């Protein structure tokens, strides 16, 4: 596989509007070539008999029983609020919408 050239790095830098020195072009070309090579090696490791997965272990949801428990009344919850409107916390408008 051909490596990443400094001309390709220069082209990507122009597209990204980055100013790179000659030394940086050489440095990043080497680094990007190493990265592309590492990704290619990972692709070679996957065997065809191994199905693709998003997680190596099966995932299961752990749920607790939904039980009614004592909680604050609306009045208690709003007692220390700096501003209340219609039994709700009143907060400053942030989106500029009505």
Automatic annotation (TrEMBL):
Pfam families: GatC
Reaction(s) catalysed by this chain's protein: L-glutamyl-tRNA(Gln) + L-glutamine + ATP + H2O = L-glutaminyl-tRNA(Gln) + L-glutamate + ADP + phosphate + H(+); L-aspartyl-tRNA(Asn) + L-glutamine + ATP + H2O = L-asparaginyl-tRNA(Asn) + L-glutamate + ADP + phosphate + 2 H(+)
Top-level EC class: ligase
InterPro entries in the cross-refs: Asp/Glu-ADT_sf_sub_c, GatC
Sample GO molecular function, one term: transferase activity
GO biological process terms held by the UniProt record: glutaminyl-tRNAGln biosynthesis via transamidation; regulation of translational fidelity; translation
Keyword ATP-binding appears in the UniProt entry: yes
UniProt KW keywords: ATP-binding, Ligase, Nucleotide-binding, Protein biosynthesis, Transferase
TM regions (residue ranges): none
Assigned EC number: 6.3.5.-
Function in brief: Allows the formation of correctly charged Asn-tRNA(Asn) or Gln-tRNA(Gln) through the transamidation of misacylated Asp-tRNA(Asn) or Glu-tRNA(Gln) in organisms which lack either or both of asparaginyl-tRNA or glutaminyl-tRNA synthetases. The reaction takes place in the presence of glutamine and ATP through an activated phospho-Asp-tRNA(Asn) or phospho-Glu-tRNA(Gln).
Subunit structure, as described in the record: Heterotrimer of A, B and C subunits.
Family indicated by similarity: Belongs to the GatC family.
Name of the protein in question: Aspartyl/glutamyl-tRNA(Asn/Gln) amidotransferase subunit C
Phylogenetic classification of the source organism: Bacteria, Bacillati, Actinomycetota, Actinomycetes, Kitasatosporales
């Amino acid at each position: 596989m051909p490596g990443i050239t400094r001309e390709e790095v220069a082209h990507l830098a122009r597209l990204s509007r980055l100013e790179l020195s000659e030394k940086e072009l050489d440095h990043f070309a080497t680094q990007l070539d190493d990265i592309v090579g590492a990704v290619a090696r990972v692709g070679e490791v996957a065997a065809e008999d191994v199905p693709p997965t998003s997680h190596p272990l099966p995932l299961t949801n752990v749920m607790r029983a939904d039980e009614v428990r004592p909680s604050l009344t609306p009045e208690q919850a709003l007692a220390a609020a700096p501003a209340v409107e219609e039994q709700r916390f009143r907060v400053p408008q942030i989106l500029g919408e009505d």
